[in-house]
Amino acid sequence: MAATMGSAGQTYTRDLAEFAVDMRLGDVPDAARHEALRIFIDCMGCGVAGLVAPGTRIAIELARDERGPLQANMISSGPASVLPACYANTTAINSLDFDVYGPEAHLAPVVVSGALAMGDAVDASGADAFAAMCAGLEVGGRVGAALRRVGMGEGGNIGPVRGEGNVVFGAAVAAGRLLGLTREQMHHTLGIAGYSATVPTMRKFLGSNLPMTKYDHLALMT
Domains plus CATH for the chain? Predict the structure, then answer.
């Protein structure tokens, strides 16, 4: 992505990084804010419901004893270090597959978990956490549209290479905003996020017997 030129001679990655840092909640159209709030509420409901899933319980037990300088709350399960807390919360929200699908892939659980956990860790305001969530959904959705739609076959069939790597960009934007990253730092963050995205194995997963690792795959990118 970084090798492709965007506006004014910049890379597309830099354009996205600048948008991610500069966007303000007042810039978000009312309809988009309403949808983002609906996504947030939906994720919270899915997260509570997902506490009954075996995979969620495993993730929470894994994260429970992790401690670090930045901590966040797991859904109905107490505090943990911010990264394990994100992992557990994303697993909970996605575990029953009832979460909002889109914009592009199961982006919502990852972005909402990232914004809430990092907002919790740095004691951000509700408005700042919500703005970070909106920015993450926008950037993650845009990247997903570029990466995923070209792999769709005729009639909406899933192409031979398919995954949800775009969600990592949404999480990076949400967390980066709440950490107060500069434009340059966000640019590097998006590059690192892309390098760290998981291999697109969704096609292989769909041909299997729906293993529990489906939810692990998504949560690892939070």
Answer: 7-219 (1.10.4100.10)
